[in-house]
Every structure is written in C-alpha cells, then in structure tokens.
C-alpha cells in the first residue's frame, strides 16, 4: 500500500470525531458564560457589602449577611470550575 492510501488503523492512531469536539466546546462555552455571570454577581454584591460595612452606621450585620451571600456565589463558581469534567 502506498503512503497516500493508508487508513487511520494502518497509521496506528485514531482521530477523534469532530462532532464530539463540537459538543464539548459548546458545553465549555455555556459553562464559561455561567461562571462569568456568577463572578459578576460576586463582584457587585461584594462591593455593595463592603460599602455598607464601611459607610453605614448600624449596617454591619446587614453588610455581613450580604458579604456571606457574595461569598456563596464565589464558592459556587469555584466549584463549577473545579468539579467540571
């Protein structure tokens, strides 16, 4: 057999089908968008919480609750990043 007519089996390696690569890329894009939204929520809520904590007279408890909520958004984003397969 000539070099030009060899199949993938004869070359000794396999090529992944393109449709599987496309599906993985679409999932990655969706996950990336979700992670960006969660990061944006974290940043906005954390800024509000820090502002209330620093500039509010009696808002320390409310600011602490808001900061805990912001951290929960960040934890969910990090868990998506770490446990995604």
Describe this structure in words.
The protein has 85 residues and is mainly alpha-helical. The protein has three helices and no strands. The chain has helices at residues 8-11, 18-55, 60-83. The longest helix is centred in the middle third of the chain and has 38 residues, at 18-55. It is rod-shaped. It starts with 7 loop residues before the first helix and ends with a helix. The model has no long low-confidence stretch (mean pLDDT 82).
Outline:
The chain is 78% helix and 0% strand. By secondary structure, it is an all-alpha fold.
What is the N-to-C order of secondary-structure elements (H for helix, E for strand)?
Answer: HHH
Oligomer: single chain
Low-pLDDT runs of 5+ residues are none
User: Termini distance?
Assistant: 41 Å
Summed over residues and divided by their number, the pLDDT gives a mean of: 82
Strand content: under 5%
* Class inferred from helices and paired strands: mainly alpha
What composes the largest sheet? Answer: none
Silhouette? rod-shaped
The percent of residues in helical segments reads over 70%
Tally of DSSP helical segments: 3
Number of DSSP E strands: 0
Radius of gyration: 24 Å
């Amino acid at each position: 057999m000539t070099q030009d007519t060899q199949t993938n089996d004869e070359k000794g390696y396999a090529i992944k089908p393109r449709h599987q690569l496309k599906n993985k890329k679409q999932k990655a894009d969706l996950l990336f968008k979700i992670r960006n939204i969660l990061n944006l929520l974290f940043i906005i809520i954390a800024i509000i919480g820090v502002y209330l904590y620093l500039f509010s007279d009696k808002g320390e408890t409310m600011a602490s609750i808001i900061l805990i909520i912001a951290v929960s958004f960040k934890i969910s984003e990090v868990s998506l990043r770490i446990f995604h397969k």
